[in-house]
Amino acid sequence: MKTYFLSIFFFSISVNAQFTYPDPKISNPEEDMAEKDELINLIIGKQKIKESYTKTHGVENETIIELKKFDTQGNILFASNITEVFNKPTRKDEYKIAVSSNKIVSFEQSSLDLPTDKSEIFYDLKNNISKITGKGKEYEYIYEKGKLIKKKENYAGEKGVNTYKYSAKGKVTAISTEYISSKGKLSTSLNSFVYDMDDNILSNSLESTGTVIEKKYSYTDNLLTNYTLTFNGNKAEEEQYDYDEDRRIKKKVKASYNPDKNTSISTSSLVFKYNYKNGLLAERITLFDGKEPGYVETFYYDDQKRMVKVKTQSENKVVANVNISYENKTITLAGGTFKSEYTLYE
Q1: What is the pLDDT of residue 12?
Q2: Does the pLDDT of residue 14 top 60, yes or no?
Q3: Would you say residue 6 has pLDDT above 60?
């Protein structure tokens, strides 16, 4: 329960501090639902974040300062994470990119514990990324009719080739992979995708040696209603969604199972309930294993319908308050142990 609680209240943008490698975009409905449900996304809606500054005070005189800057596509231009602990060396991890002619031409990561790792990016005549190189690594990308059809990787003596196939609508239908280890051992896998008439993804299956992982999705009126994840035919996860007459989520049930058993056995579950008032989310209830105790988040708004406060209670006790303030294009979230400031694009 404690881990989940922290995941709720550490309000920051979840973005990998690395360059976005070329890859066809494939819908992942359950992850999209979870992302929309994050507090910062409930607040900013469809606005784009230009930069994010987060300062968090931890326990035992520990201070964490995090800075992130983004471009309009969501790529991180710069990221820095500084951890200060009394009587200990300051730890600083940093990531930054270089831009030329509006294109990212290199990115690098540095850390207190590791040497700087820098990669350079090359483009073809159509401005598609054709190659990425760095110390001990090389990635090559091949296109046809504007679509990525092959990706070759060579990393620390290991080699891999991904081949992509598409439907007539341009949707990825298959990704086949060949991988050769540094010891010369060959392994293969096939990732297949099936869509409905509305281009909603119905299944995502990955087959490799001795393993089949499959995700299945069901929809009603183009709204995701069920998601299951299986390992070798045994259920591992399941999510169910219910909506109100305005197509807003009103209940989500998430269950985890032990897929090693011949018959999957539920090991834990989360139930999320949503209540609305005046067209706005007023309350979100989280129950663990469908029972109390849980968390009740209450959302407050100003006369412009902007979220200004979130109060969280557990067992009728207030366990967290988040206050939200607005200035021009800046949104600030402040709680007992953190302060986060977000700057938005026009």
Answers
A1: 35
A2: no
A3: no
